[in-house]
Design a protein that fits this description.
29% helix; 288 residues; 5-stranded mixed sheet
Amino acid sequence: MLRIAIPNKGRLAEEARDLFAEAGIAVRARSERALTASLGGAFEGIFVRAQDIPEFVADGAADAGITGHDLIVESGRDICELLDLEFGACRLVLAATEESGFSSIDDVARATEPPRIATVFPGITTRFFAARQIAVQVVPVSGACEIAPHLGIADMIVDLTSTGSTLRVNGLRPLETVLESSARLLVSGNRIGERREELDDLVTALGSVICARGQRYMMANVPRQALAGVKRILPGLRAPTVIDLLNGGTMVAIHAVVPSDSVYRTIAQLKSLGGEGILVTRIERLMP
């Protein structure tokens, strides 16, 4: 079976399990501490640290994996990202204290001596500044970058943030976004053709769930003469589906996919066109 490396703990692990379950590929492990699991009976999952997954995939220990884009880039391995899973969104940012004297990346470039930058991502950080021909001294740390400027270990940090609250609590402010990240489905660039059919099936299963999120299926009966107006407010995937009612007459049934955040507005617009019997349901999976 296709072997998929999955984070063994943390937010990525929880959301990856939820996504597999929604796609009908439930994670079935013998215990909470099991190192392997069946994924819907079609795939095998192995649980490892998120930061090790690019290495497992690149070296062939796993056929595919799920981890953050930031960890993939940091690894520097020949990795292909098959699908953005749209969870675990965060930014890798350059941040400094108010007292540092740095308020932008231009200040870093003008520094008389290369500033020290503490980070868990030395590879990304080194490449980022090298591409801009800015001299810096990268200080690799294993975690808790936020404390480094306060201890005099570094002048700035490059670290992950989702909301920026941790930076603010520690008296830091972001100066520049180094990288945008989210969870990705990855495969080795050297082996992508070996399991193509199974990988395509996996991408289809997970992608259909992701595509359905934030969408709703809407049905309503509307006057036939109002169809031009209906098409303007209900585009659907391409156009709304129009179905004749069994008893004929002046009304027809329309079906369409609409964004969930515009449902309330769409209902009001349909009612203004004479719509009735309006029904809105969730969508489990969607293939455009």
